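Re: that backbone. Tokens:
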């Protein structure tokens, strides 16, 4: 059942299709305009609910304050200011409870049950039983996830810092930073497609040329530079073990621009008097960076590192788009999807098994959270002193 707005958008699409004689099929035009109507309706409803919520809650807050303290404007103001932050934070807390905490506890409970609800720890058997389902895949996923967690954030931070420093020292640095920042606007699937055409070994099937049946191949740019011929058709990202590094490079290419922009802003915020003092003391460029600038942007580096670690733990699109069925390229996130699609046995679903994988994925976030909690508390203590 569609809404009048969806129907109106679909009819608008059909009218434009007939008016300008689009070659696109009418059915597809109707479907796409109906989806645009749905998206527009969703935005209008979300914005409307937000205005209604904040309007009605602020009115109730002010009314409550007037009822409680009729003769004191100061006390009315205190009541309003005490409640107002909770009006803004309240929806977020409710959404976190409903869509994060409750599903997390439900997943944890599910991971300690058999498919019939019997309490069990067998879903975690892939941790120690070589004969269990998913034993090999889990180890490969843990190995690959660990490599991604170490290499991708580290490489992005090194490149981001290097580019931020070098770009600020040349006149065309703004242009260079613009080009390096552009990949950040590309989706992970789009980036995977771009680099597939560079890493790939050509078409899967020989292409028929215009002058007959002579086969021809399209060689990826990097494979061509490496001198690979058409007969060596294996994409570089499919190489055993080493292919993981080509997949990591795609994420590094996308995220280096993010790190560069943050570091560039942080470096501009380094006090000039410390730089001038270092120059007077005869510091060379390396000493200036490692002993003067880098210690002052240390907190920024940690924030970028934390952001990239969380991003790596969530990454799914790039490895799934290029090597969905390859165990050697599995990450914990793609392993969950692999389990859901391929591990159903005897009609039983494996919800409990990939719930245990999800729990393992959540546990990998814990060290990062603990470290950041410790860092924030230490900074607060230092500010207090």
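Recovered sequence:
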């Amino acid at each position: 059942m569609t809404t009048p707005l969806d129907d109106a958008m679909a009819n608008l699409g059909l009218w434009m299709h007939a008016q300008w004689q689009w070659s696109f099929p009418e059915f597809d035009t109707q479907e796409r305009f109906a989806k645009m109507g749905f998206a527009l309706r969703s935005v209008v409803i979300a914005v409307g609910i937000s205005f209604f919520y904040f309007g009605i809650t602020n009115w109730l807050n002010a009314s409550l304050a007037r009822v409680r303290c009729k003769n004191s404007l100061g006390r009315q103001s205190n009541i309003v200011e005490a409640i107002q932050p909770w009006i803004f934070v309240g929806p977020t807390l409710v959404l976190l409870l409903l869509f994060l905490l409750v599903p997390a506890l439900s997943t944890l409970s599910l991971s300690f049950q058999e498919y019939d609800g019997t309490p069990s720890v067998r879903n975690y058997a892939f941790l120690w039983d070589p004969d269990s389902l998913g034993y090999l895949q889990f180890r490969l996923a843990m190995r690959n996830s660990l490599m991604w967690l170490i290499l991708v954030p580290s490489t992005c931070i090194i490149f981001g810092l290097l580019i931020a420093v070098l770009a600020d020292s040349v006149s065309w640095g703004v242009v260079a930073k613009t080009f390096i920042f552009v990949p950040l606007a590309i989706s992970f699937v789009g980036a995977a497609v771009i680099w597939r055409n560079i890493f790939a070994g050509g078409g899967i099937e020989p292409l028929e040329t215009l002058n007959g049946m002579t086969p021809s191949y399209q060689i990826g740019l990097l494979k061509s530079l490496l001198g690979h011929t058409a007969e060596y058709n294996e994409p570089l990202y499919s190489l055993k073990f080493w292919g993981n590094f080509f997949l990591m490079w795609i994420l590094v290419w996308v995220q280096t621009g993010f790190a560069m922009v943050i570091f560039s802003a942080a470096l501009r915020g380094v006090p000039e008097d410390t730089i001038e003092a270092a120059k007077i003391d005869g510091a060379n460029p390396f000493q200036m960076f490692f002993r003067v600038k880098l210690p002052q942007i240390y907190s920024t580096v940690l924030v970028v590192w934390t952001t990239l670690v969380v991003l790596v733990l969530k990454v799914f699109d790039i490895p799934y788009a290029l090597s969905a069925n390859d165990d050697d390229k599995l990450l914990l996130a793609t392993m969950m999807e692999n389990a859901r699609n391929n591990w159903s046995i005897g009609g039983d679903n494996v919800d409990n098994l990939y719930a245990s994988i999800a729990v393992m994925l959540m546990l990998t976030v814990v060290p990062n959270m603990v470290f950041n909690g410790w860092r924030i508390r230490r900074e607060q203590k230092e500010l207090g002193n």
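The CA atoms of residues 163 and 169 lie 10 Å apart. The radius of gyration is 28 Å.
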